[in-house]
Specification:
The protein has 223 residues and is an alpha+beta fold. It has helices at residues 4-21, 61-70, 109-113, 115-119, 174-185, 187-193, 210-213, and strands at 24-27, 30-34, 40-44, 76-78, 83-91, 94-103, 137-142, 154-158, 166-167. The relative contact order is 0.16.
Amino acid sequence: MSTAEGILSEIRELTSELISSGLCVDQNFPAMRTGAGGVISIDISGEEERDLSVTLKNIPYSESYAVLVSQRSFNLKMIDGGLIQMMYQFRNRELINHRLAFFPSPDLLEYQNNPDIYETDEMYGDIVSRNIVTSPIRFDFDRDNFVENDHPMSHLTIGQYKNCRIPVSGPLSPFLFLNFILRAFYNTPFRKYCSDIKRREYTFSSSITKSEMLNTHIQACSA
Protein backbone atom coordinates (compact mmCIF):
# COMPACT_ATOMS: atom_id res chain seq x y z
CA MET A 1 0.00 0.00 0.00
CA SER A 2 1.37 3.40 -0.96
CA THR A 3 2.17 5.96 1.71
CA ALA A 4 2.10 9.74 1.45
CA GLU A 5 5.88 9.75 1.38
CA GLY A 6 5.94 7.18 -1.40
CA ILE A 7 3.48 9.13 -3.53
CA LEU A 8 5.44 12.35 -2.99
CA SER A 9 8.65 10.65 -4.12
CA GLU A 10 6.97 9.08 -7.15
CA ILE A 11 5.55 12.40 -8.39
CA ARG A 12 8.93 14.09 -7.91
CA GLU A 13 10.70 11.39 -9.90
CA LEU A 14 8.10 11.38 -12.67
CA THR A 15 8.31 15.17 -12.93
CA SER A 16 12.07 15.01 -13.41
CA GLU A 17 11.74 12.25 -16.00
CA LEU A 18 9.11 14.21 -17.98
CA ILE A 19 11.35 17.30 -17.95
CA SER A 20 14.23 15.22 -19.31
CA SER A 21 12.02 13.80 -22.07
CA GLY A 22 11.26 17.28 -23.40
CA LEU A 23 7.48 16.83 -23.19
CA CYS A 24 7.16 18.98 -20.04
CA VAL A 25 8.03 22.67 -20.49
CA ASP A 26 6.98 24.03 -17.07
CA GLN A 27 6.37 22.41 -13.71
CA ASN A 28 5.60 22.76 -10.02
CA PHE A 29 7.12 20.00 -7.92
CA PRO A 30 4.79 18.41 -5.34
CA ALA A 31 4.65 19.49 -1.71
CA MET A 32 3.53 17.66 1.42
CA ARG A 33 1.36 19.43 4.00
CA THR A 34 -0.40 18.35 7.20
CA GLY A 35 -3.83 19.83 7.84
CA ALA A 36 -6.74 19.52 10.23
CA GLY A 37 -7.34 16.10 11.70
CA GLY A 38 -3.90 14.96 10.70
CA VAL A 39 -4.80 14.79 7.00
CA ILE A 40 -1.63 14.72 4.92
CA SER A 41 -1.95 16.33 1.50
CA ILE A 42 0.32 15.87 -1.47
CA ASP A 43 -0.43 18.85 -3.67
CA ILE A 44 1.14 21.51 -5.87
CA SER A 45 4.03 23.51 -4.40
CA GLY A 46 3.99 27.30 -4.19
CA GLU A 47 2.40 29.97 -2.08
CA GLU A 48 -0.06 31.26 -4.69
CA GLU A 49 -3.78 31.39 -3.90
CA ARG A 50 -5.44 28.75 -6.04
CA ASP A 51 -9.09 28.15 -6.86
CA LEU A 52 -9.26 24.57 -8.12
CA SER A 53 -13.06 24.79 -8.24
CA VAL A 54 -12.80 27.15 -11.21
CA THR A 55 -13.03 24.15 -13.54
CA LEU A 56 -16.46 23.33 -12.10
CA LYS A 57 -17.93 26.79 -12.60
CA ASN A 58 -20.35 27.60 -15.40
CA ILE A 59 -17.85 29.49 -17.52
CA PRO A 60 -16.25 28.67 -20.88
CA TYR A 61 -13.50 26.08 -20.71
CA SER A 62 -11.00 28.51 -22.22
CA GLU A 63 -11.56 30.86 -19.26
CA SER A 64 -11.13 28.19 -16.60
CA TYR A 65 -7.99 26.94 -18.39
CA ALA A 66 -6.58 30.49 -18.38
CA VAL A 67 -7.17 30.74 -14.62
CA LEU A 68 -5.35 27.46 -14.02
CA VAL A 69 -2.37 28.75 -15.99
CA SER A 70 -2.33 32.16 -14.27
CA GLN A 71 -2.57 30.54 -10.82
CA ARG A 72 0.04 27.91 -11.79
CA SER A 73 -2.45 25.25 -10.73
CA PHE A 74 -0.59 22.38 -12.35
CA ASN A 75 2.15 19.87 -11.65
CA LEU A 76 3.13 19.65 -15.31
CA LYS A 77 2.61 21.89 -18.32
CA MET A 78 3.10 19.87 -21.45
CA ILE A 79 4.71 20.94 -24.70
CA ASP A 80 1.31 21.70 -26.27
CA GLY A 81 0.01 23.60 -23.23
CA GLY A 82 -1.83 20.65 -21.68
CA LEU A 83 -1.96 20.82 -17.86
CA ILE A 84 -1.62 17.84 -15.52
CA GLN A 85 -2.63 17.85 -11.85
CA MET A 86 -1.78 15.09 -9.33
CA MET A 87 -3.04 15.52 -5.77
CA TYR A 88 -3.54 12.99 -2.97
CA GLN A 89 -4.76 13.01 0.64
CA PHE A 90 -4.06 10.47 3.38
CA ARG A 91 -5.49 10.03 6.87
CA ASN A 92 -3.95 7.55 9.31
CA ARG A 93 -1.80 6.29 6.42
CA GLU A 94 -4.93 5.44 4.39
CA LEU A 95 -5.71 7.08 1.05
CA ILE A 96 -8.91 9.11 1.35
CA ASN A 97 -8.84 11.27 -1.76
CA HIS A 98 -7.07 11.88 -5.02
CA ARG A 99 -7.55 14.27 -7.92
CA LEU A 100 -5.73 13.37 -11.12
CA ALA A 101 -6.66 15.70 -13.95
CA PHE A 102 -5.67 16.50 -17.52
CA PHE A 103 -6.69 19.82 -19.04
CA PRO A 104 -5.74 20.02 -22.73
CA SER A 105 -4.99 23.42 -24.17
CA PRO A 106 -8.21 24.89 -25.64
CA ASP A 107 -6.23 26.26 -28.55
CA LEU A 108 -2.72 26.18 -29.96
CA LEU A 109 -1.93 29.84 -30.54
CA GLU A 110 1.65 29.10 -31.51
CA TYR A 111 0.46 26.47 -33.94
CA GLN A 112 -1.89 28.99 -35.52
CA ASN A 113 0.99 31.46 -35.88
CA ASN A 114 3.62 28.97 -37.11
CA PRO A 115 1.79 25.91 -38.51
CA ASP A 116 4.70 24.77 -40.71
CA ILE A 117 6.97 24.30 -37.70
CA TYR A 118 4.46 22.15 -35.85
CA GLU A 119 3.38 20.06 -38.80
CA THR A 120 6.97 18.99 -39.52
CA ASP A 121 7.80 18.19 -35.88
CA GLU A 122 6.70 14.70 -34.85
CA MET A 123 6.58 15.84 -31.22
CA TYR A 124 3.29 17.51 -32.15
CA GLY A 125 1.93 14.89 -34.51
CA ASP A 126 -0.86 13.74 -32.19
CA ILE A 127 -2.11 17.16 -31.11
CA VAL A 128 -2.40 19.47 -34.10
CA SER A 129 -5.04 17.69 -36.18
CA ARG A 130 -7.85 20.08 -36.99
CA ASN A 131 -10.58 17.59 -36.04
CA ILE A 132 -9.41 17.23 -32.42
CA VAL A 133 -11.93 18.32 -29.79
CA THR A 134 -10.34 19.20 -26.46
CA SER A 135 -11.99 17.61 -23.44
CA PRO A 136 -10.66 17.62 -19.87
CA ILE A 137 -10.64 14.35 -17.96
CA ARG A 138 -10.32 13.69 -14.25
CA PHE A 139 -9.80 10.54 -12.19
CA ASP A 140 -11.17 11.10 -8.68
CA PHE A 141 -10.98 8.96 -5.57
CA ASP A 142 -13.20 10.04 -2.66
CA ARG A 143 -13.59 7.68 0.26
CA ASP A 144 -15.66 10.00 2.47
CA ASN A 145 -18.38 10.84 -0.10
CA PHE A 146 -18.90 7.35 -1.46
CA VAL A 147 -22.47 6.43 -2.48
CA GLU A 148 -22.69 3.10 -4.26
CA ASN A 149 -23.55 3.48 -7.97
CA ASP A 150 -24.26 7.21 -7.64
CA HIS A 151 -20.82 8.36 -6.46
CA PRO A 152 -18.33 5.51 -6.87
CA MET A 153 -15.33 5.74 -4.60
CA SER A 154 -13.05 5.78 -7.64
CA HIS A 155 -14.42 7.26 -10.85
CA LEU A 156 -13.61 9.00 -14.13
CA THR A 157 -15.19 12.29 -15.21
CA ILE A 158 -15.02 13.34 -18.85
CA GLY A 159 -15.65 16.86 -20.11
CA GLN A 160 -16.66 18.40 -16.77
CA TYR A 161 -20.15 16.88 -16.94
CA LYS A 162 -21.57 17.23 -13.42
CA ASN A 163 -22.93 13.69 -13.11
CA CYS A 164 -20.37 11.89 -15.25
CA ARG A 165 -18.82 9.43 -12.80
CA ILE A 166 -17.70 6.33 -14.64
CA PRO A 167 -16.74 3.69 -12.04
CA VAL A 168 -13.06 2.78 -11.92
CA SER A 169 -11.88 -0.39 -10.25
CA GLY A 170 -9.58 1.45 -7.85
CA PRO A 171 -7.45 4.54 -7.22
CA LEU A 172 -4.58 5.27 -9.59
CA SER A 173 -0.96 5.75 -8.72
CA PRO A 174 0.85 8.77 -10.24
CA PHE A 175 2.66 6.48 -12.67
CA LEU A 176 -0.50 4.74 -13.92
CA PHE A 177 -2.27 8.05 -14.45
CA LEU A 178 0.64 9.67 -16.23
CA ASN A 179 1.26 6.54 -18.31
CA PHE A 180 -2.39 6.65 -19.40
CA ILE A 181 -2.20 10.33 -20.39
CA LEU A 182 1.03 9.90 -22.33
CA ARG A 183 -0.10 6.81 -24.21
CA ALA A 184 -3.55 8.19 -25.02
CA PHE A 185 -2.76 11.81 -25.88
CA TYR A 186 0.99 11.97 -26.62
CA ASN A 187 1.55 8.56 -28.14
CA THR A 188 4.06 9.47 -30.85
CA PRO A 189 6.48 11.47 -28.66
CA PHE A 190 5.87 9.03 -25.77
CA ARG A 191 7.12 6.08 -27.84
CA LYS A 192 10.15 7.98 -29.10
CA TYR A 193 11.23 10.17 -26.18
CA CYS A 194 9.94 8.59 -22.96
CA SER A 195 11.98 5.39 -22.76
CA ASP A 196 13.66 6.66 -19.59
CA ILE A 197 10.39 6.84 -17.65
CA LYS A 198 10.62 3.92 -15.27
CA ARG A 199 7.61 1.71 -14.69
CA ARG A 200 6.32 1.67 -11.13
CA GLU A 201 4.22 -1.09 -9.61
CA TYR A 202 0.61 -0.35 -8.78
CA THR A 203 0.13 -0.26 -5.02
CA PHE A 204 -3.51 0.60 -4.24
CA SER A 205 -6.26 -1.94 -3.62
CA SER A 206 -9.49 -2.30 -5.56
CA SER A 207 -12.39 -0.16 -4.36
CA ILE A 208 -15.19 -0.97 -6.81
CA THR A 209 -18.25 -2.81 -5.49
CA LYS A 210 -19.91 -5.87 -7.04
CA SER A 211 -22.94 -3.78 -7.91
CA GLU A 212 -20.82 -1.18 -9.70
CA MET A 213 -19.05 -3.91 -11.65
CA LEU A 214 -22.39 -4.82 -13.24
CA ASN A 215 -22.36 -1.45 -15.00
CA THR A 216 -19.87 -0.22 -17.60
CA HIS A 217 -16.66 0.55 -15.74
CA ILE A 218 -12.92 0.93 -16.20
CA GLN A 219 -10.63 -1.81 -15.01
CA ALA A 220 -7.43 -0.28 -13.73
CA CYS A 221 -4.51 -2.27 -12.38
CA SER A 222 -5.15 -3.27 -8.79
CA ALA A 223 -3.30 -5.00 -6.02
